[in-house]
Amino acid sequence: MNANKLVIGLTGMPGSGKSLVVAAAKNLGYQVVTMGDVIREETAKRGLEPTPQNVGKVMLELRAERGAGVVAEKCLPKIGETQSAKIIVDGLRSYFEAEVFQANLANFTLVTVHSSPLVRFERLSTRGRSDDPPTWDVFHERDMRELGVGIGNAISLSEYVIINDGSMECLNAKVAEVLRRAEEQWFK
To answer: d(Cα 19, Cα 23) in Å, to the nearest integer?
Structure first.
C-alpha cells in the first residue's frame, strides 16, 4: 500500500476513550476507519439486533470462520480508498489484526488508550450505543471476551500508550504529542 500514508492503529478496552482520541485525531487532519463498524455491519447482515450479546457473538464467529485478522483484512480496502495521508484505525482487538496492518502498510503504528475499569464502565453506561453493557456483569463479560480475543496482546505491544485519566484538554494534548511523534517517525 501507499508508503505516503501513515496509519495509526488504535486499541484499548471498551470505554477507555478511543472515540475521544479519534475525535482529537480528526481535528488534527486524520481520516477514520472504524473496525467495530465491520462487526456491526456483519451483525446486521446476519439479521441480528445490535445487542452486546449479538455483536460479541458475531465478533467471535467471524474470527472463528475467517481467522483472527479478518476484521483488519476487511478494513484494508477502506484504508486504500481514503485520500488522506493520515489515517487512524479505531478498535484493534488483537495483535493478529496489528500484524495484518504491519504486513500490508508501510507506515503503521499501534497506540493504546488506557482507563481504569470503573471509569470505563461509567462511560459506557452513559454512552447510549445499543451494544453498550447495561450492567457491571455484562461489562465484565465483555471485557473477558475482548481479552479472550487477544486485545491484551495488542495493548501490551503498542508503541505508544495514552492514559485517559484527566480533562479533555489534557487528553487532546497527549494525543497531539503521540501523533506528532508517530509522524516524525514515519515522515522523516
So the answer is: 6
